[in-house]
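Narrative of activities, Objective 1.

The group set out to show that a structural description can be obtained from nothing but a protein's sequence at a throughput compatible with the screening campaign. Below is one input-output pair from the validation batch, recorded exactly as produced.
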Amino acid sequence: MSDAEWASVRDLLPVPAWLAGRGGRPEGYCHRQMIDAVRYLVDGIKWRAMPSDFPPWPRVYAFFARWRDAGLVTELHDRLREAVRGPRVAARSRARPSWTRSR
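Output recorded for this entry:
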């Protein structure tokens, strides 16, 4: 993930409970590393085939599932797409019904 991409999505990520003074242990992996791992999975590998330079797949999956359930994965995707395509193209694609999109 480039620094520009990270800057566009960093504010979306939830603040860990221990940083917000709500208790708990510090997280063992940084959020940027988790996003990189999830993006790697999007390329079509299985969870258990995650390369060893990423955090262990059960931890990555736990973050992914939590973020997916909170609607954060969709928001991250939209922000990153907007950063690549530009705000006008991304807004236009959201406005059209899915059945009108050409493939």
